[in-house]
């Protein structure tokens, strides 16, 4: 029997006989949620022998492990390794140290890849993409009802139609942080695209139709769990639910004697350690905490839910402090609190509508469940993409660095991008040019990779020689990372071509735009990972070479600009700001530069600005021919300054750029200073919100706070 569906989540179970089964939580094209199991896949690691593959094989088999000889690539050389199998994932750490201690074994590889991720990678399964599964129906109480047989087939077309629910709690906390053993849940708030609901308890007054009151807190929690299971969401959205709502909810439910069974298999919410806190995990569902997603996506002064929706949607969401919440709860009228609670759930759902599409596309690209992807940095996403591609290309995945190796890497430094200090002041008639995906293009053009670095085959002819270094990169064989990047950028280029054929306001255009943006995020992260000390494919020489080529191309472009009759007023890594000192043709200059550039490198025309003001590097403002102002690095766009600084600078920039009147700008500043001294500025405009990460005396720079 054939079944087409998309994987929402995956986990594993260990059978009574010690063998492991993988469970895939799949949604089919008709919207049905199914649990598929596969009992054919075994955990494994790779073993690199010291010398004799046969001796290592005998040693490993002597402790009862199943072994297979494989040929894989290490750097650019094919070598023989052992593929060592285990009954279940728990055996891997049990045998790992015994294997390491064997004299015939040089190194273990891929021993730290979680089993479920290993399964998805090896079987070519990408969550949220549709696949054809060959299955059979069985009756097995221990395993399930639908068994995968004969592998997983090719990708299929399918429309992703996921059920999303936002979730939020209000708690009684008159004495600081609430305790699950002492403090009650005031309300449970949730919303979907069909309804929004606030559940509370013990209220006698008339409540809005979207709010239900129950006799007891226990009744309220049980009613929520019933509706949660009935709606059966694929994605559960929250805001800081990893570190507050779910840990507290589980603790409180336990105190009430209730099992918080929100998993699709009836299991309770689980927690995994990672990063700077817990990560809540719900079996069979995608659990997305939007707080870390927002922190990575949007730069704000503060990240309260009220500030985020105000900045992103222009909403003035009701705001209540902890004292107001518990006082309203104790009063006879809690209407304001109920509206606040409902707005929390609705705001989280609205944030999800805005932010989830990118997470969906990153999930499809990287091939891990959305619960994992939504919590990953761009560097982690790149690493797991490369782990998957390494398997496809039969490359051995390098180990993460240990203590000594890591500390050696941390101490290594190299020169970064080239910066031309800006000519400070006001300038007019400014042209701006940018290199398109400069560092990814350099990686592809010069084949920069750990596997191509200082190759023997190009030693005599020098390969892709790096100016100023005794480095070169192979010209004959495509590197592992450049080949992946090239495919990503080709994919993005095709998507952007397709976008030109769609209406800008159409759903198709917006979906394609999100997809190309996901690729852009990944592609632009490759350079940073190469120089990151914890990266598996770390190569300081590669990162150093990319930066060196970047400096070379920006310097060469500057020389050409000056020769053509432009004056360079600022340059930074991949951008160039120039103004003509004689009659010139900007497009002709652009064409000449691009004719001189090799491979994937391309300079693009970013725009013309009638006026600009430059202060220091990375701090400037421009106004284009249509009157639109762009500011970089200034207080007007920074979130670590008081509102008074931003508001004042906004007026100053308008006076300078729109009117070309610096005298008016000076008058504005003097006026504000006078108002501050006279106490005529509201106190909230003088507040700086920031996070202190060390003792005050340890700060070297005199920062605003």
Percent helix among the residues?
A: 25-40%
Count, helices: 20
Low-confidence stretches: none
Residue-averaged pLDDT, rounded? 90
- CA-CA gap between termini: 65 Å
**What percent of residues are in strands?**
15-25%
Radius of gyration: 29 Å
How would you summarize the topology of this molecule?
Elements: E1 2-14, E2 20-28, E3 33-38, E4 44-49, H1 53-61, E5 66-74, E6 77-85, H2 91-100, E7 105-109, H3 115-122, E8 130-140, E9 144-156, E10 164-171, E11 185-191, E12 196-201, E13 211-214, H4 217-231, E14 235-238, H5 241-256, E15 270-274, E16 277-281, E17 286-289, H6 290-297, H7 305-313, H8 322-330, H9 335-366, H10 370-373, H11 378-393, H12 403-411, E18 419-420, E19 425-435, H13 438-445, H14 480-499, H15 507-523, H16 526-530, H17 540-564, E20 566-572, E21 575-580, H18 586-596, E22 603-616, E23 619-624, E24 629-632, H19 643-658, H20 662-677
Parallel strand pairs: 3-9, 10-14, 12-13, 14-17
Antiparallel strand pairs: 1-2, 1-8, 2-3, 4-6, 4-7, 5-6, 8-9, 10-11, 11-12, 15-16, 18-20, 19-21, 19-22, 20-21, 22-23, 23-24
Helix pairs in contact: 9-15, 13-14, 13-17, 14-15, 19-20
Protein model, in words:
With 705 residues, the chain is an alpha+beta fold. Helices cover 37% and strands 25% of the residues. α9 (335-366) packs across α15, α13 crosses α14 and α19 (643-658) packs antiparallel against α20 (662-677). The longest helix has 32 residues, at 335-366. It starts with a strand and ends in a 28-residue tail after the last helix. 36% of the residues are buried. The model has no long low-confidence stretch (mean pLDDT 90).
């Amino acid at each position: 029997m054939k079944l087409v569906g998309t994987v929402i989540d995956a986990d594993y179970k260990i059978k009574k006989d010690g063998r492991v089964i993988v469970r895939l939580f799949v949604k089919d094209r008709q919207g049905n949620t199914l649990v598929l199991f596969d009992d054919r896949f075994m955990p494994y690691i790779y073993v690199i022998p010291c010398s004799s593959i046969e001796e290592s094989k005998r040693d490993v088999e002597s402790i009862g492990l199943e072994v297979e000889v494989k040929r894989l690539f290490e750097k650019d050389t094919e070598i023989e390794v052992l593929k060592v199998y285990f009954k279940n994932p728990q055996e891997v750490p049990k045998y790992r140290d015994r294997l390491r201690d064997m004299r015939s074994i040089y190194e273990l590889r891929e021993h730290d890849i979680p089993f479920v991720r290993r399964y998805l990678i090896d079987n070519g399964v990408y969550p949220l993409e549709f696949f054809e599964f060959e299955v059979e129906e069985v009756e097995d109480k221990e395993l399930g009802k639908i068994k995968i047989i004969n592998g997983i087939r090719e990708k299929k077309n399918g429309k992703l139609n996921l059920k999303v629910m936002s979730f939020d709690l209000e708690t009684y906390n008159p004495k600081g942080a609430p305790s699950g053993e002492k403090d009650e849940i005031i309300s449970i708030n949730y919303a979907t695209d069909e309804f929004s609901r606030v559940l509370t308890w013990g209220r006698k007054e008339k409540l809005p139709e979207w709010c239900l009151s129950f006799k007891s807190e226990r009744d309220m929690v049980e009613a929520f769990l019933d509706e949660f299971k009935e709606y059966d969401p694929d994605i559960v959205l929250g805001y800081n639910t990893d570190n507050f709502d779910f840990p507290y909810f589980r603790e409180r439910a336990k105190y009430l004697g209730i099992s918080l069974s929100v998993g699709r298999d009836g299991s309770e919410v689980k927690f995994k350690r990672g990063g700077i806190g817990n990560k809540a995990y719900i079996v069979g569902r995608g659990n997305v905490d939007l707080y870390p997603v927002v922190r990575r996506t949007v730069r704000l002064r503060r990240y309260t839910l009220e500030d985020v929706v105000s900045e992103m949607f222009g909403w003035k969401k009701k705001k209540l402090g902890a004292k107001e919440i518990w006082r309203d709860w104790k009063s006879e009228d809690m209407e304001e609190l109920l509206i606040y609670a409902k707005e929390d759930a609705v705001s989280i759902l609205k944030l999800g509508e805005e932010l989830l599409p990118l997470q969906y596309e990153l999930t499809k690209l990287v091939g891990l469940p959305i619960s994992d992807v939504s919590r990953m940095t761009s560097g982690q996403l790149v690493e797991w993409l490369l782990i998957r591609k390494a398997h496809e290309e039969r490359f051995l995945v390098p180990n993460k660095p240990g203590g000594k190796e890591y500390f050696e890497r941390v101490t290594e430094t190299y020169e970064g991008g080239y910066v031309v200090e800006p000519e400070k002041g006001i300038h007019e008639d400014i042209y701006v040019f940018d290199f398109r995906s400069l560092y990814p293009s350099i990686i592809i053009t010069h084949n920069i990779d750990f596997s191509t670095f200082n190759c023997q085959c190009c030693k005599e002819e020098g390969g892709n020689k790096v100016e100023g270094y005794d480095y070169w990169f192979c010209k004959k064989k495509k590197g592992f990372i450049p080949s992946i990047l090239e495919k990503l950028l080709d994919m993005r280029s095709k998507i952007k071509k397709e976008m030109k054929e769609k209406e800008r306001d159409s759903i198709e255009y917006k979906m394609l735009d999100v997809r190309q943006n996901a690729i852009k995020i990944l592609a632009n992260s490759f350079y940073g990972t190469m120089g990151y000390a914890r990266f598996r494919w770390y190569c300081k020489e590669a990162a150093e070479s990319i930066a060196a080529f970047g400096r070379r191309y920006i310097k060469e472009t500057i020389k050409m600009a000056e020769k053509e009759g432009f004056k360079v007023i600022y340059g930074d890594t991949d951008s160039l700001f120039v103004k003509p000192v004689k009659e010139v043709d900007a497009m002709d200059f652009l064409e000449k530069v691009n004719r001189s550039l090799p491979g994937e490198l391309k300079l693009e025309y970013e725009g013309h600005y009638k006026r600009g003001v430059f202060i220091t590097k990375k701090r400037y403002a421009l106004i284009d021919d249509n009157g639109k102002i762009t500011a970089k690095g200034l207080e007007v766009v920074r979130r670590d300054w008081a509102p008074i600084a931003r508001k004042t600078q906004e007026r100053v920039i308008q006076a300078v750029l729109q009117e070309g009147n610096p005298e008016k700008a000076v008058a504005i500043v003097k006026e504000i200073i006078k108002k501050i001294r006279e106490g005529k500025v509201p106190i909230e405009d003088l507040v700086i919100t920031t996070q202190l990460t060390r003792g005050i005396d340890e700060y070297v720079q005199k920062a605003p706070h």
